[in-house]
Specification:
Elements (H helix, E strand, L loop, with lengths): L19 E9 L3 E6 L4 E8 L2 E5 L2 E5 L3 E5 L5 E5 L5 E8 L11 H11 L3 E2 L3 E2 L4 H19 L4 H18 L4 E2 L3 H23 L6 H7 L4 H12 L3 H16 L7 H7 L5 H12 L3 H9 L1
Antiparallel strand pairs: 1-8, 2-7, 3-6, 3-8, 4-5, 4-7, 6-10, 9-11
Helix pairs in contact: 2-3, 5-6
Length: 295
């Protein structure tokens, strides 16, 4: 059995000398925007078009156009569109090591070490409700433009903008302290969620028992189901079906594979239930989806 690393995103963002990358995610009218995952880097996620909800650990964060969420290291996150809106978002993903030169750096010791040590975290949502938040949104837009246009000195401009964002957050006392007991409990629950999601990803092709997952995360069945629903907004069974159906999309691209075989390969024990769940999540049958893809 793998540990939570199974759920970890294994992607290098940028280079060793400049560990930052910006991603343009133009997903159109797709309902599901981002699957559950986590990474060691910090992420500024900026919604430039549409309406969406991003689940950050146990908290759903609703975004409108020109708003952002700040995702801390190790936070499990996912996203879906609201009201079937056309969504476009940008992800600025970077290692905190980009911002300081050594552990003796006074900026590291005073401002970044508490983040590294889990004593503080960034605020989740940035909207246009105050001058300093509006400036942060402007700075995120500047990072995005500099990254894609790459004028001479763009690395300096990006690094300066990120540092200014941190400065604005700190100056406005918006950092979140994690010293209190409720945050400790939340972190423990999040670690159990990571382990449960990893188990599902590793075993989705087989019959999955809720009791087995609960045992894996050392909770009773009742407590596990309650925690899972609280953190994800779905029951374990709903998430297992949702994950299997998303895997089906990739398998259906191979027109030589029979739909019945795909259903069994994904852990469904009968074809009719697979078709029912596929229609429930995607609004069409697997055959109809395959025909639409083939046009």
């Amino acid at each position: 059995m793998k540990n939570k690393e199974e759920l970890k995103e294994n992607v290098s963002h940028g280079s060793a000398s400049f560990p930052l990358c910006v991603y343009n995610n133009d997903l159109g009218y797709k309902e599901h925007l981002l699957d559950y995952h986590w990474h060691d880097e910090i992420e500024f996620l900026y919604l430039s078009k549409g309406k969406a909800v991003f689940q950050i650990d146990s908290t759903p964060v609703e975004l409108r156009e020109n708003e952002a969420v700040l995702i801390n290291r190790g936070e499990v996150h996912s996203g879906y569109s609201l009201d079937h809106s056309y969504c476009v978002y940008y992800s600025v993903v970077f290692s905190p090591e980009l911002l300081y030169n050594s552990f003796q750096d006074i900026c590291y010791e005073r401002y970044f070490r508490p983040l590294e040590d889990g004593e503080q975290k960034l605020p989740q949502k940035i909207s246009a409700n105050s001058d300093w938040e509006r400036e942060i949104l402007t700075r995120i837009n500047s990072i995005i433009c500099s990254f894609f246009e790459r004028p001479e000195g763009y690395e300096i401009d990006i690094k300066a903008s990120i540092l200014k964002i941190f400065s604005l957050i700190i100056a406005n006392n918006a950092m979140i302290s994690l010293h209190d007991k409720s945050n400790t409990v939340r972190q423990v629950r999040t670690e159990k969620l990571k382990k449960a999601l990893s188990y599902i990803r590793e075993n989705y092709q087989k019959k999955i028992s809720i009791d087995d997952i609960a045992k894996e995360v050392n909770l009773t069945r009742y407590h596990f189901c309650r925690v899972f629903k609280t953190l994800t907004g779905q029951t374990p069974v709903e998430y297992i079906n949702y994950y299997r159906i998303n895997q089906a999309l990739r398998l259906l691209e191979d027109e030589n594979r029979k739909i019945m075989d795909i259903a069994f390969d994904l852990g469904f024990n009968n074809l009719s239930y697979f078709v029912k769940k596929f229609r429930e999540y995607k609004g069409c049958t697997p055959s109809e989806y395959r025909k639409m893809r083939g046009r």
